[in-house]
Amino acid sequence: MKLSHQLTAIAASLLIATPVFASDTSHFKGEPANTLEQAVANFSEYNNKLENALANDLSPEAMNEVHQLTYTLENALQKLNDEIDELEETLEKVHKASEHADPDTVRSAGEQYLTNSRKIVK
């Protein structure tokens, strides 16, 4: 009798867990990261959410939550990568202008670089 109760419990848990894994997750898009500020905010918030999820039992429901969180993190990282590429280009303008003693470009590109980089790190 005890074995049949265990099998029933296992079967019931599989019925509960299966929809979580079998669900169509392709509809998840995550939070958008249309601006650098939005990407940084989402990156920070969703890293905290991921940290909290990892600190607990990774049940099927938690695994689904982690799966959904990663979409927002991926969006944020993509925007951050794009912005870092632009920062590199702007800093290169500062670098080359400094080599050519072009104070106007150094000042304008340098200020643009600092403004944008401080959105990531203060």
What does this structure look like?
- This protein is mostly helical and 122 residues long.
- The protein has one domain (37-122).
- The protein contains four helices and no strands.
- The protein has helices spanning 2-22, 36-54, 60-99, 103-117.
- The radius of gyration is 24 Å and the shape is elongated.
- The relative contact order is 0.12.
Task: Tally the beta strands.
Answer: 0
Radius of gyration: 24 Å
Helix content: over 70%
Q: Taking all residues together, what is the mean pLDDT?
A: 84
Shape: elongated
Terminal CA distance: 65 Å
Number of helices: 4
The main sheet comes to: none
Provide the domain count: 1
Element order, helices and strands?
A: HHHH
Category by helix and strand content: mainly alpha
List keywords for this structure.
122 residues; mainly alpha; 78% helix
Write the layout of secondary structure elements.
Elements: H1 2-22, H2 36-54, H3 60-99, H4 103-117
Helix pairs in contact: 2-3, 3-4
Structure, briefly:
The protein has 122 residues and is mostly helical. The protein is 78% helix and 0% strand. It has helices at residues 2-22, 36-54, 60-99, 103-117.
